[in-house]
Amino acid sequence: MKIAAVQFAPAFGEVEANLRTCRNLVSSVEADLYVLPELALSGYLFESPEEAHSLAQDPEGSEIGAFADLAAERGSVIVVGFAERAGEAVFNSSVLVGPDGRRSVYRKIHLFYPEKDVFLPGDRPFEVVEAAGVRLGMMICFDWIFPESARSLALQGAEILCHPANLVLPYCQDAMVTRALENRVFAVTANRTGTEERVGKELTFTGLSEIVAPNGEILAKADTTGEAVITAEIDPGRARDKAVTPRNDAFGDRRPELYRLD
Amino acid sequence: MKIAAVQFAPAFGEVEANLRTCRNLVSSVEADLYVLPELALSGYLFESPEEAHSLAQDPEGSEIGAFADLAAERGSVIVVGFAERAGEAVFNSSVLVGPDGRRSVYRKIHLFYPEKDVFLPGDRPFEVVEAAGVRLGMMICFDWIFPESARSLALQGAEILCHPANLVLPYCQDAMVTRALENRVFAVTANRTGTEERVGKELTFTGLSEIVAPNGEILAKADTTGEAVITAEIDPGRARDKAVTPRNDAFGDRRPELYRLD
């Protein structure tokens, strides 16, 4: 199968324009799975929860519906980050839409600091979604720094980590190589680019979206700026083989009885 | 305090000569903590458990005693990897010797594949040792690929990961940056160099010993070959501060109730 990371700079508050950009980029390259950035429709630097709420989407609403239509049209799976409206609350979420119309939502569990003023933290465990015959796990941006995120997904059988991001620190892209290696899974980090200057802050996002193989090989990598759709042809079955050596298994060799993780 | 990683190529089976090399390298540079490679006294490629047993040391015996003398003489802590004789069994262990004569042993929990024919796997949990006013955690070589190793030590309060290694794969040195970052601890990887050709195998060890800070900065790094003692002046108190940002804490932000680690 062919998997893709879509990188671009969402325009703050311009939901319709960002949706068009997403559609154009997805339509520009054939793939079976597209991963798009975190908060791809709204932008990042909200001044208040109310502002985030006003720019948020209902997972069953028309904007996410447009992604479902796109997925159906292309026979593909799409994962995209968005501000999720849930009653009065807003979560920093991602949705997986399948060609069959399914929509699965992940609510970011580990919020990065400006987000703590705006979003509620995720309230549901890491979960694997089966779509197009592949087992997919979603994690968002800062979730990377907690090894438990990728580990939870991989131990539940995720073959591909779908990782929408709005990264501003320089560490994650290298760390995702470790995440792929230690869990023997594919990892698709779709990061945004561009700069946002709002609410007295200025953030520049680091791009360098990447696709990593279970052996740590970087299969594709984007630049630090600009739009890109990077792709890799993969066999997801590789992620079911946890062999590190002929006699070492990344999961079978674990010794939970000797760990102290409380 | 000043911490050091000692890198060299142990000569297979030459316990006395390797002990002299260790003594000379440790004595060549002042430090408060020295970390030496895995199996530093015996070499790596044993043809049988019996051969390993014949080249192994009792933690209370004279060879480890020589390290205790060296630690007392220099007022330092020394961590060194060795084949541990325990009755009829042999473990791939490391010992921490303090200037006060204390000896603490860690038995490698995750054996790399040629080791599975020779050693018993570690039978005791990851544990933190307090020495010279600092909290130290030992892990050995291949333990790196399991995020639970460093995590177990850090969650128990380790400030410095002492990591003797005989690395042959090229991934660990980069991954230790992630281990330091995700746990906000110092990490000292003391890797060996040289090539061993025995029992129908040939292994070349990758050197590149390194000292990493809690923010992922590589404070010192050795070459791929040869002997080296690399050092860094550090404040171990930095590892007690788990702040990633002013409002993110690497430990406080964990959400164990949402992880699935079984």
- List the strand order in the largest sheet of chain A: 5-4-3-2-1-14
Give the distance, in angstroms, between the N- and C-terminal Cα atoms of chain A: 39 Å
Q: Write the H/E string of chain A, N to C.
A: EHEHHEEEEEHEHEEEEEEEE
Which structural category do the helix and sheet elements of chain A fall into?
A: alpha/beta
Task: Explain how this protein is built.
The structure is a homodimer of 262-residue chains. In chain A, helix 4 runs parallel beside helix 5. The first copy, chain A, is globular. Chain A has one domain: Nitrilase/N-carbamoyl-D-aminoacid amidohydrolase (4-Layer Sandwich), CATH 3.60.110.10. Chain A is an alpha/beta fold. The first copy, chain A, has helices at residues 15-27, 49-54, 62-74, 147-155, 172-183, and strands at 2-7, 33-35, 77-86, 89-97, 103-107, 128-131, 134-138, 160-165, 186-191, 195-198, 201-204, 210-212, 218-221, 228-233, 243-245, 248-249. In chain A, strand 1, helix 1 and strand 2 (33-35) form a beta-alpha-beta unit. Chain A has 5 helices and 16 strands. In chain A, the strands form 4 sheets. The first copy, chain A, has a 6-stranded mixed β-sheet with strand order 5-4-3-2-1-14. In chain A, 56% of the residues are buried. Chain A is 20% helix and 31% strand. At the A-B interface, helix 4 and helix 5 of A face helix 4 and helix 5 of B.
